[in-house]
Amino acid sequence: MHQLYKLRAARLVQRRQDDIKDESSEYSGHSSKATVPPTHDAFGRDKALFQEHAKLRRIAEREARRARRRQARELSGKMAEHNEGLSSDDEETSTDITNYNIERERILAETKKVFEDVLDDFSGVDSIKLRFEELRLEYYSHYREAYIALCLPRLFNPLVRLQLIPWNPLEAKCPEFENMLWFESLLFYGCEEQKELQKDDVDIGLLPAITEKVILPKLCVLAEHVWDPFSTSQTSRLVAFVKRLIGGYPSVIHAENKNTQALLKCILMRLRRTLDEDVFMPLYSKTVLDNKNKNSGPYLFFQRQFWSCVKLLGNILQWHGILSNRVLQELAIDSLLNRYMLISLQSTECGEDGIKKSKRIITCFPKQWFTSLKGDKTIPQLENFCRYLLHSATTIYRMSVTGSDADKRSAREQMKQIIKLLASIHAVDHAVAVANEHSVKDIKAVLEGK
């Protein structure tokens, strides 16, 4: 089943990468038009012609998916607040869905045969549980001396794993594992009627141990091979599930636990792989990105890539409180914002568009990063972003000098917005510098929105 999940995830990621390559080559202006001798593959097909036909098919499918998503947003009334690149392109063809469902049903049918040659007394959680409960009730001292409680997690392990085969917390409507039959069966293991379970009872750690030995390794595989960090819905589900584990099983889900460390390592490796392999920011001149060319292919592709980075930034920072601030800042700021997104911002026309994008970036940052800072400086990794905002303020002022009174008023309001943005990330020194340089009086009133 994991292989099935992995193949589907890899297919969607590969499709996204192919789409980006297609659009990049189409708008780069460097596509080779030179005539080359035809080469043929093992089936006798002209390779160049076959690749061109495959590219045209991908273009048609991509535009059809975008049109369907656009129509869905129009019907739901979300068109105005949406930016191209924020939606997840995870729609599958009917053929892919059918093949996936057929294979999934085949795997589930095979799971029912796993214990068909095993006696009923040993083929289910309930039957095995009953035998050990009888042993515990009648010979508790021997039960304890034989360390049976340490053996039970391993004994139930294959039976629990069998029930968890179709379980995937990345999917929408995935049942909680606490509601599954194996969990409900083992929840009251060792409990006797009209008798409270003691805190030092040897079996009190049964479910936490199974969670550690079964749930965490499965989650590790899903995080490394199935989870798509570009998908906000998948990321939200995975983050929520991990937080629920941390809150519900603190005795095993902690920094010193090896399985927890392995899970966090898988999450970190997947995020880094996405940053290295899936992020792409095209470079175009400002004339290509002029507002007059808003409907041109390069302009739309550039904007789509920027907003996809904004989405990834927000998804990475959903891990705040789970991954350390140092790791998150290295991933989100050093590897994404400073490496890719600032290039896009510097190519964007200074003014409303740049401020809108900057504001959206800042809303992704956890407020806890700035509340504990002392002095008037922000975190060092954001200095490049602050310099961009300072440059924007200076450019907006210079452009307004020869403009009309309305242009000057608009520029002044935009500079006030930039001051607020700088203050919101605790870059007080830069906010004061902008206010002093452009004679923005009563900075306290500006920050309070008056």
Relevant terms:
mainly alpha; 64% helix; 0% strand; 450 residues
Task: Report on the architecture of this protein.
The chain is mostly helical. The protein is 64% helix and 0% strand. It has helices at 2-28, 47-76, 94-111, 125-138, 140-145, 148-163, 181-187, 206-225, 232-248, 258-277, 297-317, 325-347, 352-364, 368-371, 383-401, 405-424, 428-437, 443-447. The longest helix is centred in the N-terminal third of the chain and has 30 residues, at 47-76. It is flat. The model is unreliable at 30-35 (pLDDT under 50).
List SSEs in N-to-C order: HHHHHHHHHHHHHHHHHH
Number of helices: 18
Radius of gyration: 28 Å
The low-confidence parts are 30-35
Task: Tell me about the largest β-sheet.
Answer: none
Helical fraction equals: 55-70%
Strand content: under 5%
pLDDT average, as an integer?
86
Termini separation: 58 Å
Q: What's the total count of β strands?
A: 0
Structure summary:
With about 450 residues, the protein is mostly helical.
